[in-house]
């Protein structure tokens, strides 16, 4: 293919080369008809296909073609099942092929730094090893069918607040070991066709023009051969971006930046060789896709895809509490099913990943099928708001008093969490909590089923007898819940993130979402369980936690270190009465390290299925490279006595053994005492962080005078800003939410417009508003009246 690409490039004019480096419209890459280069389509994922039903440049999110809605990443990660995630990828690829989609925009692999990030439901975990391995499986599955993926959002897109311009200040070691590591694993193991760079800055530079990350790390160090595209509207300076490593600007904007690129080439700012290298990556992607597009369109078995989504959802459910073995349920008992979620399920997140499900089922219908007349139901609350409805509550309390067992379905409605804004607190809706407490007064046999994209508080945790964490389980989530509740499926999921008792427990909470234009990652490596385990803080539920209807026993831990890997062997036995699956987790410590480290870190895992009384020997080989830390401009291995721990969760270590590992790499004391001796009130000062960061912290960009990267909420107090804000919000709501009653999408749109940089008005206007006219409007808002009028009129 290399020779074919070289031949095509020789035949391209400069204008044609440049035209290939930005999209044709919102969802298509530009083609060159005379050279038989098609304009391929990319579209949103990652847990289902979201292809717009109308025109190709439709930016709406409510009118996509029907597709199977699989569980979101927060649920998928709870399966800890590489093979299952691979198969999810295969199924998604089949649906892409059926709709002539060449690249699915996913998976999302950003680390869950803080539980309030509104988009956490789209991300896998707080741990980079688990994130990277699952992402690699997903990518391999999709690309096995010759459909591309776009791993995103590269990098440190860990909040929605000011996501289009916030500057994430991260020390090099933390960046390498936490926030880049998941990307590195997935890219090296699975070779995604594309990488999508995020909107935000890292250490003072926009990702779209960050040479160190896009070129030096991604392309040179990691040897990434695919294409780097921007998130939609993430391009800041196109010339700087191209030089830094950005290949493709998305979406199409009527060739807005083409002239600037041509001028940069003619003036020698961009060499012909560099331009050709960028163009070659775009052509390579198109040619890979061309083979699939030329084949007869595939049609997938819709029923099989739904049934598989049901299986995936059931495998991802986490059983958090099962007091007195209240689960699985006996079908001869009178069961009260309570909660409007039973008929109107919360099964996916809101935003660009919103899927139009092929076959949405619900728990109520699934429970009726199981129980018949032994089921009684009441909604208990309204999903439209969190106001307590006394009539609905009264009905629910009445049926609960007549039941042997009450299963209450609660969680987060989509007005609480979404792309576009961060959550304000960890609580579920007030009417959900109130309903639970009132029902507990008349029935003590209460089971809670949670539908949510990220952690929530559970003030009733000690009073109820069962808790099921379903996350956002996709279109078959109700049926999957029934499968687990009635014992057809033994729950095997485990949490891929820590559930806190309060926000104050998180060190990152001191800097979330940060100042208006800057967020400092002063907690360093202490994210999630790395903090809880080290500071000896007991969370609500620990990382890796999950129960089963059976029990497992671990024994016979043996270790062997070779020059390249650490071989870990142990046995697991099913000591209960049910067939089940166990997820064994391998954590590694180096207590006498010269540099600061978390108490332990996940380095491997294995999911195994066992029949009653059956035992299996488990072997996990951990590359010694995964024990390396980023030290003095490179990954290095520290000599010492390591402790290998086998856990049922990060908190429940059942086996451990020491092993000596030697290395030629030399380490010195890092003298970071505040990070070495952390306690439960760990709160590094700015000066503490500067020692970790190793240089001066970049200055925060001032709000005034207004500039091209000012966001709408900063200047909507001006008359022009107010008028523009109102007009754009109205237009975006109309495009994205034709349904007038969809308050969640309206809230998302209002927040997104609030935090949209002014340069986006140029990008998304498709050429209607030029850069010069935009600058004129900025001048007017800065009270440079004459300059502003002249630029606005000239356009």
Descriptive keywords:
795 residues, alpha/beta, TIM Barrel, Immunoglobulin-like, five-stranded parallel beta sheet, 25 helices, 16% strand
Q: How would you describe this protein?
A:
It is a single chain. This protein is an alpha/beta fold and 795 residues long. It folds into four domains: 2-293, Glycoside hydrolase, family 3, N-terminal domain (TIM Barrel, Alpha-Beta Barrel), CATH 3.20.20; 302-497, Glycoside hydrolase family 3 C-terminal domain (Rossmann fold, 3-Layer(aba) Sandwich), CATH 3.40.50.1700; 550-667, Immunoglobulin-like, CATH 2.60.40; 712-794, no CATH class. Helices cover 33% and strands 16% of the residues. It has 25 helices and 24 strands. The strands form six sheets. The protein has a six-stranded mixed sheet with strand order 9-14-13-12-10-11, sandwiched between helices. It has a five-stranded parallel sheet with strand order 1-2-3-5-8. It has a four-stranded mixed sheet with strand order 7-6-4-15, with no helix packed on it. The longest helix has 22 residues, at 272-293.
């Amino acid at each position: 293919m290399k020779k074919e690409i070289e031949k095509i490039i020789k035949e391209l004019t400069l204008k044609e080369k440049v035209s290939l480096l930005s999209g044709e419209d919102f969802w298509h890459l530009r083609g060159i008809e005379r050279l038989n280069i098609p304009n391929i389509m990319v579209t949103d994922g990652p847990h289902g296909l979201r292809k717009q039903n109308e025109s190709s440049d439709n930016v709406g999110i409510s009118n996509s073609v029907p597709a199977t809605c699989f569980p979101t990443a927060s649920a998928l990660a709870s399966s800890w099942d590489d093979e299952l995630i691979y198969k999810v990828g295969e199924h998604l690829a089949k649906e892409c092929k059926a709709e002539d989609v060449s690249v699915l925009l996913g998976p999302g692999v950003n680390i869950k730094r803080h539980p309030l990030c509104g988009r956490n439901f789209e991300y896998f975990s707080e741990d980079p090893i688990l994130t990277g391995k699952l992402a690699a499986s997903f990518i391999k599955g999709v690309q096995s069918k010759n459909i591309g993926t776009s791993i995103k959002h590269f990098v440190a897109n860990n909040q929605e607040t000011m996501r289009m311009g916030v500057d994430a200040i991260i020390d090099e070691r933390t960046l390498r070991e936490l926030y880049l590591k998941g990307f590195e694993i997935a890219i090296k193991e699975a070779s995604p066709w594309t990488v999508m760079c995020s909107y935000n800055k890292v250490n003072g530079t926009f990702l779209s023009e960050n040479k160190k990350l896009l070129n030096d790390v991604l392309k040179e160090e990691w040897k990434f051969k695919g294409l780097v595209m921007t998130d939609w509207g993430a391009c800041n300076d196109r010339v700087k971006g191209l030089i830094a490593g950005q290949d493709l600007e998305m979406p199409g904007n009527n060739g807005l930046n083409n002239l600037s690129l041509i001028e940069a080439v003619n003036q020698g700012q961009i060499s012909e060789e560099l331009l050709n290298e960028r163009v070659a990556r775009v052509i390579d992607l198109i040619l890979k896709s061309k083979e699939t597009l030329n084949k007869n369109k595939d049609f997938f078995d819709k029923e099989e895809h739904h049934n598989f989504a049901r299986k995936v959802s059931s495998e991802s459910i986490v059983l958090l509490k099962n007091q007195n073995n209240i689960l699985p349920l006996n079908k001869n008992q009178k069961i009260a099913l309570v909660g409007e979620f039973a008929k109107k399920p919360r099964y996916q997140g809101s935003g660009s990943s919103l899927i139009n499900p092929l076959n949405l089922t619900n728990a109520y219908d699934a429970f009726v099928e199981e129980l018949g007349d032994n089921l009684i139901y009441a909604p208990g609350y309204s999903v439209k708001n969190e106001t307590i409805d006394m009539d609905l509550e009264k009905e629910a309390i009445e049926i609960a008093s007549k039941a042997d067992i009450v299963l209450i379905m609660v969680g987060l409605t989509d007005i609480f969490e979404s792309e576009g804004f961060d959550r304000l607190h960890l609580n579920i809706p007030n009417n959900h909590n109130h309903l639970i407490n009132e029902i507990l007064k008349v029935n003590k046999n209460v089971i809670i089923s949670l539908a949510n994209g990220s952690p929530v508080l559970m003030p009733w945790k000690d009073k109820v007898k069962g808790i099921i964490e379903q996350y956002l389980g996709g279109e078959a989530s109700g049926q999957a819940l029934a499968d687990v509740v009635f014992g057809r499926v033994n729950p095997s999921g485990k949490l891929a993130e820590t559930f806190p008792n309060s926000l104050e427990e998180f060190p990152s909470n001191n800097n979330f979402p940060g100042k208006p234009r800057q967020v400092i990652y002063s907690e360093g490596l202490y994210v999630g369980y790395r903090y809880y385990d080290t500071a000896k803080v007991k969370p609500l539920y620990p990382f890796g936690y999950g129960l089963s209807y059976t029990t497992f026993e671990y024994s016979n831990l043996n270790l062997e270190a070779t020059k390249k890997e650490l071989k870990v062997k142990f046995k697991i036995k099913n000591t209960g009465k049910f067939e089940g699956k166990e997820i064994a987790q391998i954590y590694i410590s180096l207590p006498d390290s010269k540099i600061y480290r978390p108490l332990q870190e996940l380095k491997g895992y294995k999911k195994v299925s066992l029949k009653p009384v059956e035992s299996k020997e488990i072997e996990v080989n951990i590359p010694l490279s995964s024990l390396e830390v980023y030290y003095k401009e490179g990954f290095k291995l520290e000599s010492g006595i390591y402790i290998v721990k086998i856990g049922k969760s990060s908190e429940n270590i059942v086996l451990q053994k020491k092993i000596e590992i030697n290395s030629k790499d030399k380490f010195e004391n890092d003298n970071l005492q505040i990070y070495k001796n952390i306690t439960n009130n760990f709160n590094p000062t700015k000066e503490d962080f500067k020692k970790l960061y190793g240089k001066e912290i970049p200055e925060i960009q001032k709000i005034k005078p207004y500039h091209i990267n000012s966001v709408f909420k900063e200047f909507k107090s001006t008359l022009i800003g107010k008028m523009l804000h109102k007009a754009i919000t109205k237009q975006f709501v109309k495009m994205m939410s034709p349904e007038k009653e969809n308050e969640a999408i309206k809230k998302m749109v209002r927040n997104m417009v609030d935090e949209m940089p002014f340069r986006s008005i140029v990008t998304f206007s498709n050429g209607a508003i030029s850069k010069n006219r935009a600058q004129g409007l900025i001048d007017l808002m800065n009270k440079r009246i004459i300059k502003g009028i002249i630029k606005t009129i000239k356009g």
